[in-house]
From TrEMBL:
Species name: Kocuria soli
GO biological process, one term: lipid metabolic process
Highest taxon above the source species: Bacteria
Ranges where the record places region Disordered: 1-28
Residues of the GP-PDE domain: 31-299
Protein name: Glycerophosphodiester phosphodiesterase
Pfam families: GDPD
InterPro entries, A to Z: GP_PDE_dom, PLC-like_Pdiesterase_TIM-brl
GO molecular function terms noted in the UniProt entry: phosphoric diester hydrolase activity
Amino acid sequence: MLFAAGTPPVHATDSEDPMTDSNQSRTTDEFELQAHRAGRGHWTENSLHATGRSLDTGVGAVEVDTQLTRDGVVVVWHDSTLQADKCRDTGPVTDGDPAYPYVGDHLRDLTLEQIQSVDCGFQPAPGFPDQEVVTGHRIAPLSEFLALARERGAESMWWNIEIKIEDPSDAAERNLHTDAVLQEVYAAGDPGRTQIQSFDWAVLDRVAVTAPEVRLGALATAKNPSGAGQNPQEVARRGYDVWVPNHTIPSEDDIAEAHDLGLKVVPWTVNDASDMQRLMDWGVDGLITDYPWQLREIMAQRGMSLPSRYPAV
């Protein structure tokens, strides 16, 4: 039984073989301009406002991160904890709440109501002094992001949803988080325009079994102890669709090899114009950037087809 709209995903075991075939039907031939954390170089990261502005700008995909709350709601936020350099408490949701103060706590240990009482839009994020602050930003459920794109009629835009797993050894928690994200994606009717990516490739194996319409992105970093993600062979062997390496990893030959293996290559997080130009010259299929405006300008200068804009009506 596969995952279908309105039904929960089937609970596959970690031992199941996810796929044996390439999934190129889930790819797009257009160069993918992806707004990292919805465009955190320009606006407060992972916010509905940033997503709306990215839709105004015209991006091929909005990349967001997900966490799971104590009451089982998928929310869009990068960090597993509420960090003091991004968020500040405004008061307990109930008198004498023993969990208060909430800043410093794991999102997994807080309810949606507790999380949304916290102000995560009061200053620019560290390292982004020119970021437009979304005053009073509250962390929002993934469902509201998906609804925003539907309201804008963003038919050609993709979602790139990262599932953040803090403890890869906790299979039950990983499966719960993954299934909850897929439930939202299918409820929104967006599986064919969704990529799930993760550094924990067991997430991708589960998605491959339960949600075959969804594209699979294998995140890789030079810090991976196994080093498995630092070349495309393992990505292809496991049947994933997109190699998503840190932009410092791939050489021009690596990119060519990935293409020969039937993979797309979309590095992260590429914020320097010279790096963008170099990787585009090497033939990458897209770039994940904090600065979608900048990448869009470079695409225009190169005479490339630009993603559609979906402004608010």
